[in-house]
Protein backbone atom coordinates (compact mmCIF):
# COMPACT_ATOMS: atom_id res chain seq x y z
CA UNK A 1 0.00 0.00 0.00
CA UNK A 2 1.37 3.39 -1.01
CA UNK A 3 1.78 5.74 1.95
CA UNK A 4 3.05 9.30 2.14
CA UNK A 5 3.44 10.80 5.60
CA UNK A 6 4.30 14.46 6.05
CA UNK A 7 5.85 15.99 9.14
CA UNK A 8 7.45 19.19 10.32
CA UNK A 9 4.63 21.73 10.20
CA UNK A 10 3.52 24.16 12.87
CA UNK A 11 3.58 27.83 13.78
CA UNK A 12 6.47 29.97 12.56
CA UNK A 13 7.13 33.71 12.56
CA UNK A 14 7.34 35.69 9.33
CA UNK A 15 10.85 35.72 7.90
CA UNK A 16 11.82 32.50 9.64
CA UNK A 17 12.40 29.02 8.16
CA UNK A 18 10.75 25.64 8.36
CA UNK A 19 11.54 22.26 6.83
CA UNK A 20 8.88 19.75 5.88
CA UNK A 21 9.52 16.05 5.38
CA UNK A 22 7.54 13.37 3.61
CA UNK A 23 8.35 9.72 4.17
CA UNK A 24 7.24 7.36 1.43
CA UNK A 25 6.52 3.65 1.51
CA UNK A 26 4.78 1.00 -0.56
CA UNK A 27 6.42 1.89 -3.89
CA UNK A 28 9.87 2.30 -5.40
CA UNK A 29 10.54 5.88 -4.34
CA UNK A 30 13.54 6.46 -6.58
CA UNK A 31 11.50 5.64 -9.69
CA UNK A 32 9.13 8.57 -9.24
CA UNK A 33 9.19 12.33 -9.48
CA UNK A 34 7.66 13.89 -6.37
CA UNK A 35 5.93 17.17 -5.64
CA UNK A 36 4.52 19.49 -2.99
CA UNK A 37 1.08 21.07 -3.31
CA UNK A 38 -0.38 23.56 -0.87
CA UNK A 39 -3.87 24.68 0.07
CA UNK A 40 -4.51 27.89 2.00
CA UNK A 41 -7.40 27.72 4.49
CA UNK A 42 -10.71 27.36 2.62
CA UNK A 43 -8.93 27.94 -0.70
CA UNK A 44 -7.98 25.92 -3.73
CA UNK A 45 -4.94 23.82 -4.50
CA UNK A 46 -1.64 25.30 -5.64
CA UNK A 47 1.30 23.40 -7.04
CA UNK A 48 4.48 24.42 -5.18
CA UNK A 49 7.41 22.42 -6.52
CA UNK A 50 8.42 19.21 -8.26
CA UNK A 51 11.64 17.21 -8.15
CA UNK A 52 12.72 14.56 -10.61
CA UNK A 53 13.19 10.93 -9.56
CA UNK A 54 16.94 11.35 -9.09
CA UNK A 55 16.90 14.89 -7.76
CA UNK A 56 18.67 16.31 -10.80
CA UNK A 57 15.81 18.60 -11.85
CA UNK A 58 13.62 20.88 -9.78
CA UNK A 59 10.74 23.17 -10.70
CA UNK A 60 9.00 25.86 -8.64
CA UNK A 61 6.04 28.19 -8.83
CA UNK A 62 7.18 31.79 -9.16
CA UNK A 63 6.02 32.89 -5.71
CA UNK A 64 8.39 30.48 -3.95
CA UNK A 65 11.43 30.61 -6.26
CA UNK A 66 14.50 31.60 -4.30
CA UNK A 67 12.76 30.97 -0.95
CA UNK A 68 11.76 27.28 -1.06
CA UNK A 69 13.98 24.31 -1.91
CA UNK A 70 12.67 20.87 -2.76
CA UNK A 71 15.04 17.95 -2.25
CA UNK A 72 15.03 14.22 -1.66
CA UNK A 73 17.04 11.45 -0.06
CA UNK A 74 16.35 8.29 -2.01
CA UNK A 75 18.24 6.17 0.50
CA UNK A 76 15.76 7.27 3.15
CA UNK A 77 12.67 7.34 0.88
CA UNK A 78 12.13 10.90 2.01
CA UNK A 79 11.10 14.12 0.28
CA UNK A 80 11.82 17.53 1.78
CA UNK A 81 10.67 21.11 1.43
CA UNK A 82 12.95 23.74 2.95
CA UNK A 83 10.97 26.95 3.34
CA UNK A 84 12.92 30.13 4.03
CA UNK A 85 11.86 33.77 4.39
CA UNK A 86 8.34 32.64 5.15
CA UNK A 87 5.46 35.03 4.59
CA UNK A 88 1.92 35.12 5.97
CA UNK A 89 0.64 34.14 2.52
CA UNK A 90 2.56 30.85 2.80
CA UNK A 91 0.11 29.77 5.50
CA UNK A 92 -1.45 26.57 4.16
CA UNK A 93 -1.71 22.83 4.41
CA UNK A 94 1.17 21.31 2.49
CA UNK A 95 0.69 17.98 0.76
CA UNK A 96 3.35 15.65 -0.52
CA UNK A 97 2.26 13.87 -3.70
CA UNK A 98 3.65 11.42 -6.19
CA UNK A 99 4.22 12.87 -9.63
CA UNK A 100 3.62 12.80 -12.58
CA UNK A 101 -0.08 12.47 -12.10
CA UNK A 102 -0.30 13.28 -8.39
CA UNK A 103 -1.92 9.88 -7.91
CA UNK A 104 -1.11 9.46 -4.23
CA UNK A 105 -1.21 12.14 -1.55
CA UNK A 106 -0.17 12.42 2.06
CA UNK A 107 -2.58 13.58 4.73
CA UNK A 108 -1.08 17.06 4.70
CA UNK A 109 0.72 19.15 7.29
CA UNK A 110 -0.36 22.62 8.38
CA UNK A 111 2.07 25.52 8.27
CA UNK A 112 0.99 28.76 9.94
CA UNK A 113 3.12 31.86 9.40
CA UNK A 114 2.22 34.44 12.00
CA UNK A 115 3.80 36.65 14.62
CA UNK B 1 1.04 30.75 -17.19
CA UNK B 2 -1.98 28.69 -18.14
CA UNK B 3 -5.13 29.65 -16.29
CA UNK B 4 -7.70 26.96 -15.51
CA UNK B 5 -11.30 28.13 -15.17
CA UNK B 6 -13.89 25.80 -13.69
CA UNK B 7 -17.64 26.17 -13.96
CA UNK B 8 -19.93 26.27 -12.23
CA UNK B 9 -18.31 27.16 -8.90
CA UNK B 10 -21.20 25.48 -7.05
CA UNK B 11 -23.48 22.79 -8.42
CA UNK B 12 -26.51 21.40 -6.65
CA UNK B 13 -28.08 18.24 -8.03
CA UNK B 14 -30.25 15.32 -6.96
CA UNK B 15 -29.19 11.76 -6.32
CA UNK B 16 -29.30 9.86 -9.60
CA UNK B 17 -28.77 12.95 -11.77
CA UNK B 18 -26.23 13.09 -14.54
CA UNK B 19 -23.80 15.85 -13.58
CA UNK B 20 -21.30 17.70 -15.76
CA UNK B 21 -18.42 19.81 -14.48
CA UNK B 22 -16.46 22.02 -16.83
CA UNK B 23 -12.85 23.14 -17.01
CA UNK B 24 -11.42 25.56 -19.54
CA UNK B 25 -7.72 26.21 -20.06
CA UNK B 26 -6.40 29.54 -21.28
CA UNK B 27 -4.46 27.69 -23.98
CA UNK B 28 -4.19 24.21 -25.48
CA UNK B 29 -3.06 21.71 -22.85
CA UNK B 30 -2.91 18.70 -25.17
CA UNK B 31 -5.19 16.55 -23.00
CA UNK B 32 -2.77 16.74 -20.06
CA UNK B 33 -5.70 17.26 -17.75
CA UNK B 34 -6.48 15.49 -14.49
CA UNK B 35 -9.51 15.62 -12.18
CA UNK B 36 -9.37 15.35 -8.39
CA UNK B 37 -12.05 14.94 -5.77
CA UNK B 38 -11.55 16.49 -2.35
CA UNK B 39 -13.94 15.73 0.47
CA UNK B 40 -14.10 17.95 3.52
CA UNK B 41 -11.03 17.54 5.71
CA UNK B 42 -9.36 15.05 3.38
CA UNK B 43 -6.52 15.07 0.89
CA UNK B 44 -7.41 15.22 -2.81
CA UNK B 45 -7.99 11.96 -4.65
CA UNK B 46 -7.13 11.40 -8.30
CA UNK B 47 -10.20 10.43 -10.34
CA UNK B 48 -9.19 10.88 -13.98
CA UNK B 49 -5.79 11.37 -15.59
CA UNK B 50 -4.91 12.59 -19.07
CA UNK B 51 -8.49 13.63 -19.83
CA UNK B 52 -10.27 10.28 -19.95
CA UNK B 53 -8.34 7.61 -18.05
CA UNK B 54 -10.09 6.35 -14.94
CA UNK B 55 -7.77 5.90 -11.98
CA UNK B 56 -7.74 2.42 -10.45
CA UNK B 57 -10.47 1.94 -7.89
CA UNK B 58 -12.61 4.87 -9.03
CA UNK B 59 -16.25 4.01 -9.81
CA UNK B 60 -17.17 3.82 -13.47
CA UNK B 61 -19.87 6.48 -13.04
CA UNK B 62 -17.01 8.99 -13.32
CA UNK B 63 -15.75 9.80 -16.79
CA UNK B 64 -13.76 12.53 -18.49
CA UNK B 65 -13.59 14.00 -21.94
CA UNK B 66 -12.27 16.96 -23.86
CA UNK B 67 -9.46 18.29 -25.95
CA UNK B 68 -7.62 21.49 -26.67
CA UNK B 69 -8.80 23.97 -24.07
CA UNK B 70 -12.15 22.47 -22.99
CA UNK B 71 -12.60 19.51 -20.67
CA UNK B 72 -15.46 17.86 -18.83
CA UNK B 73 -15.93 15.56 -15.85
CA UNK B 74 -19.20 13.66 -15.90
CA UNK B 75 -20.85 11.72 -13.12
CA UNK B 76 -23.43 9.51 -14.76
CA UNK B 77 -25.58 8.96 -11.68
CA UNK B 78 -24.87 11.17 -8.69
CA UNK B 79 -24.45 9.38 -5.36
CA UNK B 80 -24.54 10.90 -1.85
CA UNK B 81 -20.86 10.07 -1.35
CA UNK B 82 -19.95 12.25 -4.34
CA UNK B 83 -20.46 15.41 -2.28
CA UNK B 84 -17.06 17.09 -2.55
CA UNK B 85 -15.11 19.79 -4.32
CA UNK B 86 -13.70 18.81 -7.71
CA UNK B 87 -10.53 20.32 -9.12
CA UNK B 88 -9.11 20.13 -12.61
CA UNK B 89 -5.36 20.31 -13.08
CA UNK B 90 -3.09 20.64 -16.09
CA UNK B 91 0.39 19.17 -16.39
CA UNK B 92 1.15 20.30 -19.93
CA UNK B 93 4.00 22.63 -19.02
CA UNK B 94 5.45 24.65 -16.13
CA UNK B 95 3.99 26.03 -13.99
CA UNK B 96 1.39 23.40 -13.27
CA UNK B 97 -1.94 24.86 -12.26
CA UNK B 98 -5.22 23.79 -10.71
CA UNK B 99 -8.65 25.18 -11.36
CA UNK B 100 -10.43 26.93 -8.50
CA UNK B 101 -12.82 24.04 -7.99
CA UNK B 102 -16.49 23.13 -8.31
CA UNK B 103 -18.33 22.41 -5.09
CA UNK B 104 -20.88 19.66 -5.67
CA UNK B 105 -23.86 19.48 -3.35
CA UNK B 106 -26.90 17.25 -3.08
CA UNK B 107 -30.32 18.91 -3.36
Overall mean pLDDT of chain A stands at: 97
Percent helix range of chain A: under 10%
SSE ordering of chain B: EEEEEEEEEEE
Termini separation of chain B: 36 Å
Number of strands of chain A: 10
Query: What proportion strand of chain B?
Result: over 45%
Based on secondary structure, the structural category of chain B is mainly beta
> Could you list the spans of chain B in which at least 5 consecutive residues all have pLDDT below 50?
none
The overall strand count of chain B is 11
Helix content of chain B: under 10%
Rg of chain B, rounded, reads 13 Å
Number of helices of chain B: 0
**Structural class, judged by helices and strands of chain A?**
mainly beta
Structural summary, described in words:
The complex is a heterodimer of chains A (115) and B (107). Chain A is mainly beta and 115 residues long. Chain A is built from no helices and ten strands. Chain A is globular. The N and C termini of chain A lie far apart (40 Å). The mean pLDDT of chain A is 97. Chain B has 107 residues and is mainly β. Chain B has strands at residues 4-7, 10-13, 19-25, 33-38, 45-49, 53-54, 62-67, 70-75, 84-90, 97-98, 102-106. In chain B, strands 2, 4, 5, 6, 9, 10 and 11 form a seven-stranded mixed β-sheet that branches. Chain B has a four-stranded antiparallel β-sheet with strand order 1-3-8-7, with no helix packed on it. The mean pLDDT of chain B is 97. The interface between A and B is medium-sized, with 19 and 21 residues.
Write a compact overview of the structure shown.
The complex is a heterodimer of chains A (115) and B (107). Chain A is built from no helices and ten strands.
What secondary-structure arrangement, pairings included, does this model have?
The complex is a heterodimer of chains A (115) and B (107).
Chain A: E1 3-7, E2 10-12, E3 18-25, E4 34-39, E5 45-51, E6 58-60, E7 68-73, E8 78-83, E9 92-98, E10 109-113
Parallel strand pairs in A: 2-10
Antiparallel strand pairs in A: 1-3, 3-8, 4-5, 4-9, 5-6, 7-8, 9-10
Chain B: E1 4-7, E2 10-13, E3 19-25, E4 33-38, E5 45-49, E6 53-54, E7 62-67, E8 70-75, E9 84-90, E10 97-98, E11 102-106
Parallel strand pairs in B: 2-11
Antiparallel strand pairs in B: 1-3, 3-8, 4-5, 4-9, 5-6, 7-8, 9-10, 9-11
Amino acid sequence: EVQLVESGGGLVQPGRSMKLSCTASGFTFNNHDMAWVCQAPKKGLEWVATISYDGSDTYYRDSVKGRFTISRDNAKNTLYLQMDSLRSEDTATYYCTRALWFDYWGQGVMVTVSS
Amino acid sequence: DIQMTQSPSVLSASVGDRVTLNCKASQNINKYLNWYQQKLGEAPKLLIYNTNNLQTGIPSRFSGSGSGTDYTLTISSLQPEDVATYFCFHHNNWPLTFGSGTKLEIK
